[in-house]
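Lab meeting minutes (informal)
Scribe: AK
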Amino acid sequence: MKVLLINGSAKEKGCTFTALSEVARGLNESGVETEILSLGTKPVADCMGCGKCRETGACVFGDVEKAKTADGFVFGSPVYYAHASGRLLSVLDRAFYSGGKEFAFKPGAAVVSARRGGTTASLEVINKHFSINQMPIVTSNYWNMVHGNTPDEVRQDKEGMRTMYNLGRNMAWMIKCIQAGPEHPQNEKESTNFIR
């Protein structure tokens, strides 16, 4: 069992990484392997609407290779102006549009870090990617957020860090339940414009 944790911050070892590391600790202690990937500091292009993914089955930017072998996902973001990072949302839009089948029926969780406000709006926009793609959404015993302006301040957010740890344990439990259960449904999708 393996979970990919995606750090949507430009700071590789900042507040978001601190939160994701605590989620990873809960997963690891529950017997689940983890890998934290950073989106880095380079510009990230949004979906170009080129339609190549419909022809080839993959985005021209190649966002979903590691998703094929993962059993679950945690997407983390700092809060910028009451919203998740644009780089993370661009990657999510492309990956889910071109490779949705690689995410379907695998648990997903959103994690955000903020100095103060905007966390619930950021969680909501990330969670929408899961709900449109048949992914069970993993929760904790509070909203999946930490507060602080530096990694040290985040570590002082005892409630937030406990929420992260519990999130990891809950995700491990959900993955094990899914793997022990029956095969997921083979749902077909029908897309229409509202007038047809």
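Next up, CB showed the second protein from the same session:
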Amino acid sequence: MLWPEERVVLLSKRAKNIGLVLFVLCWIGLQYGAAALEFDRQRILSGQLWRLWTGHFVHSHWLHFSLNGAAVLALYVIFIGRFRVSDVLLSMLLFPLVISCTLLIFYPYLAWYNGLSGVLHAVVGYACIRFAFTRSGWYGLGFFSLWGKVLLELLQHYQGYSYELAGMMVITQAHFIGAVVGTLI
């Protein structure tokens, strides 16, 4: 028999697991409409504003989707039980919009974007800052590791090096913006 407070914890974990499954199923479904959902500068400027949000949830191909999916799973395992519903809503609603608006304003040469990596960088920055002071110093190490990775990518980018993933350019600027957004929020 479980004590009442143990039932609350079990329900909370069960709800989070159900939420994760529903998120993944919806996320898989979105991949079939990627062309209508990805960040496309010209279409956004012509009024298709949903692309500011949806572009982060679609991917160029299934390898790209799988890599972002593995990162989501890793973050879920690392932060399970620590995120509140408000944290998840922040991650899924605010982070994509702010990152997209920043790309639209500060990177006018960027014609298109898709993928979750910018949002994932925001989530890591946000969670590590939040938990470094309340849970464990290991989150502080995670925060500095995130920023070391992002700054190395930017340095390499400005030296002319570009990242490719199965023939697709990796938009390292989204990683930087995500880290900034997560850190500041």
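CB comment: Confidence is low (pLDDT under 50) at residues 1-10.
No objections, moving on.
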